[in-house]
């Protein structure tokens, strides 16, 4: 399956106070995880679900794969247009569990305790996926290898690198950057960069 999510003309695709780049800047906090052996890697789906599920890397890559083209927008002011990502669409991952009715939010968990939050409705939006390739190439460690979540309609810090799990929640709570002053939602079109925006 392929989803194209670009908005139209270039002027319509770049949020206020963003500059288009053809590069792919690298920004993160902490160490860059390096994997030589993925046999110990796992992905956990837990929280407000009927039964938790844990997948190995080979099981995760064995799920149905999709491709999506989109634009991404970093809170630091750059936008990169026409990215092509390959990975497992969100809807394929959530088929593996039964989400409880009280679940309204999601917390993504990544390496070194990194987390980010979002409403369940945004997490489930068509075109979101767990990517292992960008523009036809495997992700590099700096960009989230072996797995990165991609949610293009929010600022790019919500697209968690090195993602290892999904926690379904009945109440919203801040993730790593949200605890450190970033906006709880992060809409680039509304310039929701910080908690006071």
UniProtKB/TrEMBL annotation:
- GO MF term set: oxidoreductase activity
Give one Pfam family, short name only.
Answer: Oxidored_molyb
**CDD domains given for it?**
arch_bact_SO_family_Moco
| Record-annotated Oxidoreductase molybdopterin-binding domain positions | 30-177
This protein's source sits in the domain of life called: Bacteria
Task: Quote the InterPro entries the UniProt record gives.
Answer: Mopterin_OxRdtase_euk, OxRdtase_Mopterin-bd_dom, OxRdtase_Mopterin-bd_sf
Matches recorded under PANTHER family: OXIDOREDUCTASE MOLYBDOPTERIN-BINDING DOMAIN-CONTAINING PROTEIN, PROTEIN-METHIONINE-SULFOXIDE REDUCTASE
Name listed for the protein in its UniProt record = TMAO/DMSO reductase
* Source organism: Brevibacillus laterosporus LMG 15441
């Amino acid at each position: 399956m392929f989803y194209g999510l670009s908005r139209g003309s270039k002027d319509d695709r770049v949020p206020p106070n963003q500059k288009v780049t053809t590069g792919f800047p690298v920004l993160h906090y902490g160490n860059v995880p390096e994997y030589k052996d993925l046999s110990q890697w796992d992905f956990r789906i837990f929280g407000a679900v009927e039964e938790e599920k844990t997948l190995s890397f080979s099981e995760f890559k064995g799920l149905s794969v999709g491709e999506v083209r989109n634009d991404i927008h970093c809170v630091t002011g750059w936008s990169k247009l026409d990215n092509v990502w390959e990975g497992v669409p969100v809807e394929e991952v959530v088929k593996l569990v039964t989400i409880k009715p009280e679940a309204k939010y999601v917390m993504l968990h990544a390496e070194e305790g990194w987390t980010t939050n979002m409403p369940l409705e945004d997490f489930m939006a068509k075109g979101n996926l767990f990517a292992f390739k960008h523009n036809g190439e495997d992700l590099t460690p700096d960009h989230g290898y072996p797995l990165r979540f991609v949610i293009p309609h929010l600022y790019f810090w919500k697209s968690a690198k090195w993602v290892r799990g999904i926690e379904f929640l009945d109440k919203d709570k801040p993730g790593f950057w949200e605890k450190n002053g970033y906006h709880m939602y992060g809409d680039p079109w509304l310039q929701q960069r910080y908690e006071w925006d």
